[in-house]
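Residues pack. Consider this:
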Amino acid sequence: MAEPSIELKPDIDKPDIVEIDIVQPAEPVIVNTAKHFFTNEKYKVRDDLINWVRSEAAKVGFTVVIEKSDNGSGRRKQFFILGCERGGTYKVGKKRLTKEDTGSRKCQCPFRLRGYFLASQEWSLSVVCGEHNHKMDKKLEGHMIAGRLKPEEKKFVHEMTRNLVPPRNILNTLKDRSTESKSAIKQIYNERQRLKKFIRGTRSEMQQLLKCLEDHKYVYKIRTVGESTTVQDIFWAHPDSVRLFNTFPTVLLMDSTYKTNRYKMPLFEIVGVTSTEMSYNIGFAFIANEKEENFTWVLEMCLTLLKCKDIVPKVVVTDRDTALMSAVVKVFPNSTVLVCQYHISKNVRAKCKKLCSSKEVKPEQLWNIVMGAWEEVMYSPSEESYVDAVVQFRK
């Protein structure tokens, strides 16, 4: 039997060379602003020199902060060191709650200026390092120093906050009153937070909440963990809401919202409907867990708001939360429980989006066909049309 021919290939033992696209690291940003701060002028007052530096920095596109200063007690000479706002690193406090997706403007910028107090009783300035490791900003709006609120602006924010004016409207009014204002919405929120902290004093957040509920005559109930003073669930309702609930108790809508507070506790909301199809808030509750036990307690507290014990809601609308639906059946056994159309449609959209894939029809067209058929099912005017719509939808 003849042996098979062997084909010789050159360089067969050499490894194949694979070209790899190497992403080169971005070149470091270096912006030199030293020329803007070279000056032979001397200043009698220290603050005048600092204000001149800040005005020059604003023209370039950054802000400066006082990093270190000495008043010259003893035999030491007076001096100060100015740095870029983005110098150093951000330090997290021990008691602060950490949040995800947060960042810092600090990037260890090396920019430094030094002010000297001369024997002639004047202040002089020298450039220690005039370079920045970041780009300059086109606008200084929102910067820590440039956007700082003035005393009269802080007073205005306090007055507007006490009058329940939204932060966005407060900021717009400040901009209208002063076109040179560099404040952003963050400065408004921070000042409002300082005001709330000042009003709260030594009270904790829970103690402040209870005080506000008592001051405004709210109806509220608290459940603690065992025999301790730790609050597990809290329910409250406005006096006007209680009166509306006793007048229009037929329909209730219930749902929970999330991420509305720093402790990530679910905020449970109960809404009623009037005879003119207008909605109103009945009550709210912070609950530790979304379990049947917690929902049952909240619904029982809501039931105590009704003066006539023979009158109970006829219809209760919820999302498809099994724990909540079980609690509704337990507290309102004679009520009809319905699932919210919005949540049903939301779930249908989520499921259909994964299944709407076809080579013959574009995904958008298929999506519109499926959702159109589903809306025919949802809004069927009669039982017969509902059956026909379901059959058509299944096709």
